[in-house]
Amino acid sequence: xxxDAGARLGEEAARRLARLGRVEILPGxxxxxxxxxxxxxxxTFAEDHxxxxxxGLPVAHxxxxxxxxxxPNWRDGDRDELRASLASPVxxxxxxxxxxxFWTPAWGARxxxxxxxxxxxxAELAAVPQMLPVHSHRYLPAGRGTYGHPxxxxxxxxxxxxGAELADYIDQxxxxxxxxxxxxxPRATVPFWRDLVG
Length: 198
Known about the structure:
Layout: H1 3-20, E1 24-26, H2 31-41, H3 47-55, E2 57-59, H4 79-99, H5 114-125, E3 131-135, E4 138-141, E5 151-155, E6 158-163, H6 166-175, H7 193-196
Antiparallel strand pairs: 1-2, 3-4, 4-5, 5-6
Helix pairs in contact: 1-3, 1-6, 4-5
């Protein structure tokens, strides 16, 4: 597969979302806007995610029932809200370390002091792949030159597949819950996060 395959995958996801007609889609992000966002937040978009956002920027109108806008508005959305969405996967794991005794064997023995355990977990999590919000708590990994990763629903350490890849995710989300052929479930790809998939 080539990078063109990643671009085609993102463009197909954008077409599927547009066909649903459920969300406003603004003009896509420009190269200059991608450069600004990536410099501001310190990550790079994967090829399919980048092509998806180049084809059109999905947005949601403000609602009193939403704590955060479900579609991240990378162009002119609230910067603190975007930072919170970016931090949410790691913050959720840290919450479970502190309040629900979560610990992964890959981190070695859990320190007996809760404060030390939290510090150790924070240090370990500094090295895990950055996850980028696609919609609400559905995420794709960052990383220029990559594509085709499953979309993960991440809520603390409750992590499930929500799409075999970005275009499939749009289909799955439109059904309201993920559906898989048991013979060919999605393949976990992202270090650390794949170990949490239940």
